[in-house]
Amino acid sequence: xxxxxxxxxxxxxxxxxxxxGPETDNPLAFRWYNAEQVVAGKPMKDWLRFACAYWHSFxxxxxxxxxxxxxLYAWNTHTDPIARAKEKMDAAFEFITKMNIPFYCFxxxxxxxxxxxxxxxxxxxxxxxxxxQQKQKDSGxxxxxxxxxxxxxxxxxxxAATNPDFLVLTHAAAQVKAAIDATIALxxxxxxxWGGREGYMSLLNTNMKREKEHLARFLHTAKDYARRxxxxxxxxxxxxxxxxxxxxxxxxxxxxxxxxxxxDLLNDFKLNIEVNHATLAGHTFQHELQVAADAGVLGSMDAxxxxxxxxxxxxxxxxxxxxxxxxxLVIMEAGGFQGGGINFDAKRRRNSTDNLDLFYAHIxxxxxxxRALVVADKILNQSExxxxxxxxxxxxxxxxxxxxxxxxxxxxxxxxYAANHGEPNVVSGKQEYFENIINRYI
Length: 442
Ligand code: XLS
Ligand code: NI
Ligand code: NI
Prior knowledge:
Elements (H helix, E strand, L loop, with lengths): L17 E2 L9 E2 L7 E2 L2 E2 H5 L1 E4 H6 L21 H18 L4 E5 H4 L6 H22 L2 E6 L18 H20 L4 E4 L5 E2 L7 H21 L5 E4 L9 E2 L4 H10 L6 E6 H6 L4 H10 L3 E5 L18 H13 L8 E3 L10 H28 L2 H7 L7 H7 L5 H11 L9 H11 L1
Parallel strand pairs: 1-2, 5-6, 5-14, 6-7, 7-8, 8-10, 10-12, 12-13, 13-14
Antiparallel strand pairs: 3-4, 9-11
Helix pairs in contact: 3-5, 5-6, 6-7, 10-11, 11-12
The protein binds D-xylose (XLS) and nickel (II) ion (NI) (2 copies).
The site of one nickel (II) ion has 5 residues, from loops.
């Protein structure tokens, strides 16, 4: 990867972040992420496929409902929107290349400000897409996915594809069309739909059936357009149960898979699973990944973590090695992501105001995943983990258990088997033993 800067350098105090190993004292180095190191037959960079999220790292300004921005970006000073967008992209590619992050992700409005004029927005987006094409070429950085922001503008307050007003739906379509065009022009690997406002605040004013049908029709229409225009990548739906709406239609992995199946979208759509969305849905992250993997739709993930003491999407950088190790077990057993990677949908805290904090945040996140990858590989290949789990189900591997799995036994057969074999033994699930295996390899 080549470091790419603009005329100005925004992160002068930092040069390339390199792997120095677990013993290093350098806080601006990787202890675990060694891009070319081979783990289970693949270099780390190919397992992990890290991406930087444009919106958190170069747009989000630290403002919260109680206070004004605290991240005062040096790349946010121009009054001309295109000049400002270009400086922001200079900063983004400087950071991404210094971090050795191979991919990035963006919403349309992250890369350039939009107006209320559709043609003007398309023009602006294409100006900055051309700029990005050059940056990608110079650096080797690629687009993991593009998306459209269908939740910030006030016109989307009652939904985008699920809005009761058809005109609003068409405005959403205009944005999605341009964002798909941008993704294709930038050779993006995937395209994401996160339905931030696709849900309801009150069922009293909502025709849920009709709204969900509109959402499905919208996804089909967008997918057909992209395919007609040569897009070969995956579409991802990103589940989240609530926030900003009270109830979102893409609640969790199971719900989204059911929806995609019902509306015949499973050939083109997979899932993008986010850690903090899983926990908001009352699941562990591992659960959401496993559900997707079992259905063959583990597309990609948004990496972050929540806060156990509150119920918001706090989007903190990941640092929980146990949680991420358990996640990597699922991802490795699934053979990796289908087309996606690990996008840091995470933001530094409001009071982490130094440029260096952006580096520390990503270094910590990347090292957590790299370490978890190494640990998970050992657990899968050196420990009893897989064997013990398989053994729990061994009664289905032969005899009547096997016949049951094959659908060859009636309810009477099962009753007779029970009557002939007496009371089942008490068999331990060994949960603590399994938990100890994880910690032993960390
Ligand atoms: C918000 C979502 C959002 C998507 C992209 O909670 O995570 O950031 O990833 O629209
Ligand atoms: Ni996300
Ligand atoms: Ni989120």
